[in-house]
């Protein structure tokens, strides 16, 4: 028996509002704090990079060590308080100094690590599998929508306001998230599991291998894509940044289609997504014009849209409610590690072989992860359910 229509609609509305609020604010903070540090507080590039590292490092601490160990009842209180603290932190960022920006960034990074894993878990708590997988796809769609709404809103606001004021303009979104957070579902269990049991769960192993096939190149894209476009084709700053637009639009449309018509068998959709990734990485190397480069980047939006929700669906299929929070936390912690390491590795390699080839060579870890994934799970019900 499927979830009642009214309950599913209400859960969907709550999930979309909470996800758009949390991810839009999260993306704004992580991208604007470096700009605030460099252009308002006059920090050198090396220190600005360290500022971002501090934020991601504290997110890693909460997602990997703290959130998995909290029981559901206490975690709900932390989740609500975290949304309140994020709203307060936006005000503090707007009035930050060279000293206080470090403290606020560390606290914000820590707090974001309590919000995002619990949203994935909440999306998977529907009473039947079909509804849960539809909500997980809707959650992923909302993430993509946030990455369109947030940057578009900030780009418009920056025509009229400075970097300090941007934080205050995102305050209504953070307040909305605080209000909605009281209605987010948490597991109704007496005791949850974490540690070795969750780490060995095949859902976590499968999701890590599958997400590696895309988030390794995507971690590089977030840092270097606009730079690559500008250097390869001699573009203005605005035109170079616009390369993200078709990428995120295709990602959003892919996730929207998966919400409307969820995949039951993940084998072929995942295989096709990985093949598009491999072709896209090679296309970046050989694209002779900016127009074809845009086409390649747009195509890469399809696996960006599909692989993340399929990875979360694998977790939902392979976990019990008692271990799902821990597995989701470790999954996001792994992604956090990728976003810490990959840009640094690509940047270092670019010194010797150039940025284009450094990004294209990411096809190697993609193919290794693909072989390992399908060797382990080709006939497993985790993708054939």
From TrEMBL:
Q: List, alphabetically, the Pfam families matched.
A: MFS_1
Gene3D superfamilies associated with the record: MFS general substrate transporter like domains (1.20.1250.20)
Highest rank taxon of the organism? Archaea
Q: Which UniProt keyword terms apply here? A: Membrane, Transmembrane, Transmembrane helix
GO molecular function terms listed in the Swiss-Prot or TrEMBL record: transmembrane transporter activity
The organism of origin for this protein: Sulfurisphaera javensis
Q: By what name is this protein known?
A: MFS transporter
Bilayer-crossing regions: 46-66, 78-95, 101-123, 135-153, 165-184, 204-229, 235-254, 266-286, 292-310, 331-353, 359-378
Q: Which InterPro entries match?
A: MFS (IPR011701), MFS_Exporter (IPR052714), MFS_trans_sf (IPR036259)
